[in-house]
Amino acid sequence: MNFKKDVLNKIFWVTIFAITMAYLETAIVVYLRELYYPNGFSFPLMPIENNIAIVEIGREFATILMLISISVLVAKKFTERFAYFLLSFAVWDIFYYVFLKLLLNWPESFLTWDILFLIPIPWVGPVIAPVLLSLTMIFFAVLILFFNIEFERVKIKALDWMLLTLGSLVVILSFVRDYASFVLSKYNLSEIFQPDSKDALMTMSLKYFPNEFIWWIFWLGEIIILLGIFTFYNRTKGLLRKDKIEV
Question: Per-residue pLDDT tens for 174-188?
Answer without folding.
Answer: 999 998 888 877 766
